[in-house]
Amino acid sequence: MEFETVIGLEVHAQLLTDTKIFCGCSTKFGGAPNSHTCPVCLGLPGVLPVLNKKVVEFAMKMSLATNCVINKSCSFARKNYFYPDLPKGYQISQFAYPLSEHGYIFLDVDGAQKKIGLTRIHMEEDAGKLMHDEHNPVSYVDLNRAGVPLIEIVSEPDMRSPSEAADYLKRLHEILVYLEICDGNMEEGSFRCDANVSIRPMGQKEYGTRAELKNMNSFRNVQRALEYEIKRQQYLVECGGKVVQETRLWDDASGVSISMRSKEEAHDYRYFPDPDLVPILVDDAWVEKIRRELPELPLAKRERFIKDYQIPEYDAGVLTADKALSQYYEEVVKLCGKPKQASNWVMGDVLRFLNEDKRDIRKCPITAVALADMISLIEAGKISGKMAKDIIPDMYKTGLSPQKIIEEKGLVQITDEGELIKTLTAIIESNPGQVADYRGGKEKLFGFFVGQAMKATQGKANPQLVNDLLKKMLAG
Amino acid sequence: MKLSSKEVEYVARLARLEITDNETEKFTAQLNDILGYIDKLNELDTTGVAPMSHAIAVTNAFREDKIIDSIGTDKSLANAPDGRGEFFRVPKVID
Questions:
Q1: Which residue in chain B has the smallest CA separation from A58?
Q2: What's the complex ipTM?
Q3: Which residues of chain A, if any, have pLDDT below 70?
Q4: What is the pLDDT of residue A320?
Q5: How far is A234 from chain B (nearest CA, A)?
Q6: Could you write out the DSSP letters of every residue in chain B?
Q7: pTM to 2 decimal places
Q8: Smallest Cβ distance to B87: which of A51, A141, A247?
Q9: Strand-strand pairing, A246-251 and A211-214
């Protein structure tokens, strides 16, 4: 039987505020356990949470960037459940009245634009962190993260394959990082994703029973976990079984998901309006103020790169996938004025070096100035492209300027006609057979002479000059 | 009776409260009294009145994103029933 996959995603993104959502404690990652806590985020009785205005503004930015409608009025609710990482016994979240709804983003699917709906974006607080003791039946709780602001971005069940889901996540991630409202660090949990997955026979309208997948902390894991889950469900159905609604935990090491079905009754969160927090009214003026603060978003930047720099769509996609990389590229272009060459060097050599070292572009030893200088040296005929290929690994290793490396290696290009003519004459004299054949019409042999010239000069000859001189000299 | 004793037991369990049979009976009666009063309120015609979640007409109570010194790990742990080092310690829970 042919099945169709239906996927909806819930993304939790930690917001880059300095303080927590309802108190003045720092949100900084990596502090000593429980050092960033106060009576509010510890959930002590009698305290009053007060909303951090920046959280609302950051959430509004994401809403606008994903075409959501911001509700004129929204409010917080209490989601009640007991878990030791949640000191109050409830999480402050939004339920009936979220900040924004009805958004969408576009994905490139098989060369066409596919619209993925966003159901809602709401604000909430993060929970603390639990560490389980391996030898004793106890767990340790660190509440530094309790109360760190999150936005939850809920998609419609619009994705039809694991790769679409991974693509959607990459787009959301990119937008969040461009907006500078989330650092996007998946390993530290700043960007987390849960997936709802179901299958249905091709052509069937009703959705199948869905399973919820958790604990996928990389784009690759999301895709793998979804692929596994789809296979699992298909196998179940084909064997006459039934998919049950449950939460499953992805185990990256073994490549399988494990059911988290708890013995207890289904969750009953008993949401109700949080009496401590008054409603939030958002007027048009506020929305417009935030709209004006939006930076250029990835999609717009991509289109501008294609138009202004005349680079292929593929290049523009790679260069804008990371905001810092796009800034690096633009800096190089501004300094050397050669967009296509800059794109080739950034995408080819620079990115390869960085990927090999798993290093961030912000820590690239080749500065934008150094790369632009190198491109300018090629353009000015001071070095050949081949020489540049030879020195760029040294630029990466040492962080030195191309000028410095050329000087140290004695790599200056030979542009002296007299010197080159001497070399070329020697080549012509020692290869009379090839010369005769070339003159007899075998023009392909031209490349042979160029090769010989480069060999004799260890690649230092200016290629254009070699071409011009050879043409004249071989003409006889 | 709007609320059964079964529902009262369920809510008690959700709230991690242990109650005796006598208490179940007592709370069922009390909660039904409260629901009866809500029924009385429901007799009022509220057509055209927007639902409200708060009794006060205050909106947009914000604070600025400014760090205020935390109270520190020692003080945070001072009231905890159990702790170890810089952590709270609880019975092991795995979902």
A1: B65
A2: 0.89
A3: 261-266, 411-412, 415, 476
A4: 92
A5: 26
A6: --S-HHHHHHHHHHTT----HHHHHHHHHHHHHHHHHHHHHHTS--TTPPP-S-SS-----EE-S-------HHHHHHT-SSEETTEEEEE----
A7: 0.82
A8: A141
A9: parallel
- Does B21 map to a domain? yes
**DSSP label at A370?**
H
What is the least distance, in Å, from the CA of A324 to any CA of chain B?
Answer: 25
Q: At what angle do helices A463-474 and A446-456 cross, to 10 degrees?
A: 130
Question: Which pLDDT does position A161 carry in this prediction?
Answer: 93
Which residues in chain A are contacts of B87 at CB distance < 8 A? Answer: 33-34, 131, 140-142
- Chains A and B: how many Cβ contacts under 8 Å? 127
Tokens for A281, please give them: 């009214």
Q: Indicate the number of domains in chain B.
A: 1
- Count of the separate structural domains present in chain A: 3
What stretch of H or E contains A108? strand A100-109
**A124 and A242 inside one domain:** yes
Same domain, A342 and A251: no
Give me the domain span that covers residue A441.
Answer: 417-474
pLDDT digit string, tens, across residues B9-40: 999 988 889 999 999 999 999 999 999 999 99
Residue B28, domain CATH: 1.10.20
Distance, in Å, from the CA atom of A291 to the CA atom of A61, rounded to the nearest integer, reads 7
Cα–Cα distances in angstroms (integers) from residue B2 to residues B9, B28, B77, in the given order:
14, 9, 43
Residue B21 structural domain = 5-42
- B13: tokens are 């369990």
